[in-house]
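Hey, resending since the last one bounced:
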Amino acid sequence: MKKVTVIVSILLFSILRFQPFVSSSPLLYGNQVYEESSGESRNLNQEHEHAPEVHCSRERSRVASKVIEEYLTPFVEKENYQLSRKCRLHPENDMFRDQEEHRIYLDRNEWRCGYCKKSFREEKFLDQHLDNRHCNLLNLSHGKCLADLCGALHCDAVTNSKSSRSKCNPAAAARNRHLCESLADSCFPISGGLSASRLHELFLHQFCDAHSCSGKHKPFSRGGKGQGSFFRLAAGALILVLLPVFYLFIYLIQCDMNGRTQDLRRISKSGWKAKPS
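The structure tokens again:
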């Protein structure tokens, strides 16, 4: 009996000593081998774990920035008006601004990070890289999320999303209109002078009036940068077409007048010759 007890004790002792070796053996645990051989993936996961939690959509912030640039900035520049830093539409009130300025588009299948010069085949991978590797460059101050203004700025109309084609919700339209009017009041106060008053009215027509379920007003009714250049191009083409026609018309009128003048001269000369002396 003592021999059996001794043998069992020796076996248990051997198993306990062998267990750590088995748990660390790469032949039995392929997952651990994969983790050790994929250091880059592990680093990215660690960076993602240490990245701050951001409750702001980069994509919708990008759309909001595009709307401001296309449908508001041209009018602000025309008025030579300086937006206040307190205005939520100010470029510096975008937490992704610095990162967006370091997104380099080279080709359809090549994007590059302006910070570390790393290349990516798709834009979404570059965005993930910025979220993981350069999250320390985000401006996480309160009120820096442009995506929060998408309702007032009609982002869905620009992206042609389903929500823009869905049935109008009066409560949502009222909330967006209130946010839109508060932006007009804070960014372009009527007491700020003539330029501010004109931009205040323009902002109401350009963005706020369309927040209604009546369908009478469309967003961006005053046009934008792209439409302005199109109209200028169309006007230039029309002038080039009509200018030769105008000169041809003038030429024909002059020819007709010269012909009539010559006819009058012939008539007058013949009249003088026919008169008896």
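Confidence is low (pLDDT under 50) at residues 18-44.

Sorry for the duplicate.
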